[in-house]
Write a structure and sequence with these properties.
By secondary structure, this protein is of the alpha/beta class. 43% of the residues lie in helices and 16% in strands. It starts with a helix and ends with a strand. It is found in: Cytoplasm; Nucleus.
Length: 459
């Protein structure tokens, strides 16, 4: 056990000893500490008993480390420095060592599953800026990591389902059938009162793991937030307000496009991603393509090199449009520039029955639900039956566990929209080492591999 967690273990033991020594009239509640200790010890029987108590919660937090029971259960598998060194120095049986590690992870996995079934939040951060999934990934605990990814996917899917119920409530449904459909569910707000982050509770039989004891969706309070890493290495929430972005001044600096707050809108390191994307979307000359979001023009320049027969570009920002005029995009043969938000342009293209063989989507300052709306509602009316659709897959790219969660979610949503998705891994070099983030306030990529999506209609 690492030193920090060993000291935590000792702290709880001291608390319990002090509680035993106190006079009977003093009420000392050590439930939170007992839960954390039981999680650390993978003591399932004690955990079950403690979680059934009135004050028992799978989301207690240690005041010294910020760790939750999920963190504690996973961190308990981390060897301390002395043990790790002993294994290096001693002539130990490697197979026996691996077997011991596997057994430890199995015990941790059982604990993790029990905590999730009792409403543990999958993406809480400890004082080391790690979620339980981050910790499992760093320690190489594949089964525990997979459990955390699956929990994140379930939380996000439930949140998406909730958004659908909110839309029904917003539009109203006075019919008896509508009332019956809504029966068995209640909408409640979480601690921050954000209606978008409200939670759905099945009144009759709450689904374990998806709904916490307090009636909220574990992890839903942070799932919608777009987070990037600032120039000081700290996570900051990004204001994904499209109106503010479109009203802001942009700066073109050769290898990057920045907004007024020095946030990276697009950067030249994406070129390899764009090249491989176009190779997939345009496997032969003479195709019709649509790009939503011109930015620096990287992907549109690559589309032009493919000798496309028709090239439509949707762009809303005035500064980008001015740059496109300066660079001659309006005069290029076969190019049609649509000025405005895609939400206003695309329905008109559908009405006009304009069809494309390749479609790419990469907008800035929009939430995931905008991308989902695009491929769920409009791609079917824009794309040829043999066509291909792609997008910049940067969802949750601030940390690996979030990226894996959102990649699975978008794959499921694409399938619901009638598309199969094939992912190709592209290695991303160390952008910090190359100085790519110098002068950029927020880093929108922090991972080693990019998962490039190519989507086709099912069948």
């Amino acid at each position: 056990m690492p030193q920090s967690y060993q000291s935590l273990f000792e702290k709880y033991q001291n608390i319990f000893n002090m509680a035993d020594d106190q006079p009977m009239e003093i009420d000392t509640d050590t439930t939170e500490q007992e839960i954390l200790l039981a999680a650390t010890n993978h003591d399932l029987d004690s955990l079950r008993r403690l979680l059934r108590t009135p004050t028992g919660s799978a989301n207690v937090v240690d005041s010294d480390t910020g760790m939750t029971p999920l963190h504690a259960a996973i961190a308990a598998c981390e060897p301390d420095e002395e043990t790790a060194q002993d294994k290096k120095d001693m002539d130990v049986d490697e197979a026996a060592t691996l077997n011991t590690t596997a057994l430890e992870e199995e015990e941790a996995l059982k604990t993790v599953k029990l905590l999730l079934e009792n409403g543990a939040i999958w993406n809480d951060l400890d004082d080391n800026n790690e979620t339980p999934g981050c910790l499992a990934h760093r320690l190489g605990l594949k089964k525990c990591y997979e459990a955390m990814v699956e929990a994140g996917v379930r939380a996000e899917l439930l949140l998406s389902r909730l958004d659908g119920f909110e839309m029904l409530a917003e539009y109203g449904d006075d019919s008896e059938e509508g009332e019956e459909d809504a029966e068995g569910f209640e909408i409640i707000e979480n601690e921050n009162g954000d209606s978008l982050q409200a939670s759905m509770v099945e009144v009759e039989e709450p689904a374990p793991e998806l709904v916490g004891p307090d009636g909220t969706v574990p992890g839903a309070d942070s799932v919608p937030d777009l987070v990037q890493i600032d120039e000081n290495g700290q996570e900051t929430k990004v204001d994904v307000n499209s109106e503010d972005y479109l009203a802001s001044d942009l700066t073109f600096k050769g290898d990057r496009l920045l907004d007024a707050d020095k946030n990276g809108v697009m950067m030249s390191w994406e070129t390899e991603i764009m090249q491989k994307t176009v190779d997939r979307l345009c496997p032969k000359p003479g195709l019709r393509v649509l790009n939503v979001g011109h930015g620096m023009g990287i992907i549109d320049g690559i589309f032009q090199s493919k000798d496309v027969s028709a090239h439509h570009i949707i762009e809303a920002h005035p500064d980008v449009l001015a740059r496109m005029r300066k660079d001659g995009w309006y005069e290029k043969p076969g190019v049609t520039v649509h000025e405005g938000r895609w939400q206003d342009v695309v329905p008109k293209l559908v009405e006009q029955n304009v069809i494309f063989d390749g479609i790419y989507f990469d907008t800035f300052a929009e939430e995931y639900k905008a991308l989902k709306e695009f491929f769920s509602e409009y791609v079917i009316g824009l794309m040829d039956p043999e066509g291909r659709f792609g997008f910049f897959n940067g969802l949750g790219a601030d940390r690996q566990v979030c990226y894996d969660v959102y990649t699975r979610v978008v794959e499921m949503d694409l399938f619901d929209a009638g598309m199969d998705t094939e992912f190709e891994d592209i290695h991303i070099p160390d952008l910090d080492e190359q100085g790519e983030w110098e002068g950029v306030r927020r880093r929108y990529w922090a991972l080693d591999n990019y998962r490039m999506p190519t989507c086709k209609f099912v069948g």
